[in-house]
Amino acid sequence: MARKYIDNPNACSLVHTMNIIGNKWKPIILYLLSNGSMRFGMLNALIPTISKKVLTNQLKELENDGLLLRQSFAEIPPRVEYSLTEKAVGLLPVLRMLSDWANEAYPKMEFEQCRIIENVKKPAYNKELR
Q: pTM of the predicted model, to two decimals?
């Protein structure tokens, strides 16, 4: 499935940001990876309503946008882990603010505590894309 973009003729930074993270899965993936690197199977288990195909596509897009690192290990069976780049770590306070906004705007709803770690470890190696 082709990636859908919002037209951005004036190069608005908000529109650009929403084109990168503005679907229902990417913020959830970033949130889960804020607690450390994970393998595909664990991400899939923690987001039971996402199909494997969609998860694969979302991970590829996040990697292409420079928000995820994909590390392959030369093992049998093969192992791949996903972790956040420094760009993605910079988004965590924004995701935290969105969570706080929901708590304030909808006080009658009983939300689970948002477990975005504020002081995320930086990636072991610096691989900034774009």
A: 0.80
